Amino acid sequence: MNYYEFWTRLDEISLGEMFKKMMEDPTLAACKKRHNAIDMVKITKLAWTPYKGMNTLLVRALAQSKQKDGSVHEYTPLVEFKKVQYVKDATYAPKYLPNIAVISAVMQQGGSPEPVAFYKLQRDKTDVLVRCQCEDYKWTFSSHNKAAGALFGGAYKKPKPQGLKPSPNPNKIEGMCKHILKLFKVLEKTGIFA
User: DSSP 3-state assignment of 175?
Assistant: First the structure.
């Protein structure tokens, strides 16, 4: 895929569509378990990077996941929202328009955080790209998200099948690991969704 094809893909997917497909697929019974496991994940850091010229908003997180043995693993899930409509004046817009979200973001390296305003995102209309480096995401969803135009960044190497273990995602459904699910749960509390 060349640069032009990458930026002009039409087969994108929204957060709502991805979640619905993942939860409704009968072969992904583990998704319901995954959705309930997000209580074991703690988001300890959020970093907002607005790209106003490209109308995108990149959100990186630091997720700590408690394991059964008591150890804690860290992951960096991220989501890029596409077609974000930014508002020029972040200072006055929220006072007069209830459908505006305001975040505090560092706009340049080494700079101080400043307010950034945009129209609240629609779960079922705003296209997203997602990524996590956990094994569950790599094995279950990354290649299918790539095929659907929902993978942020380059593809992971295809994991080698271990024995005759069946694919955890035989219907090739796009989806999210528990770290990305927890990130979206935390983002809901920030007020960025309509």
Answer: coil
- Contact predicate 75/180, CB 8 Å: no
Task: List Cα–Cα distances, 24 to 77, 78, 143, 145, 172, in angstroms.
Answer: 23, 23, 19, 16, 13
pLDDT tens, 24-36?
Answer: 777 766 555 666 6
Give the alpha-carbon dihedral of 174, 182, 106, 128, to 10 degrees. Answer: 20
**Residue 50: exposed, middle, or buried by beta-carbon count in 10 A (0-12, 13-18, 19+)?**
buried
From CA 162, how far away is CA 50, in angstroms rounded? 40
10's CB contacts (< 8 A; 6+ apart) are: none
Q: Kindly report the pTM of this predicted structure.
A: 0.83
Look at residue 173 and give its three-state secondary structure.
coil
pLDDT digit string (tens) for 137-159? 998 889 889 988 899 998 888 76
Burial 111-148 (b: 16+ CB within 10 A, else e): eeeeebbbbebebeebbbbbbbebebbbbbbbbbbbeb
Distant-in-sequence, close-in-space partners of 179: CB < 8 Å, separation ≥ 6: 41, 61, 63, 65, 75, 77, 132, 134, 137
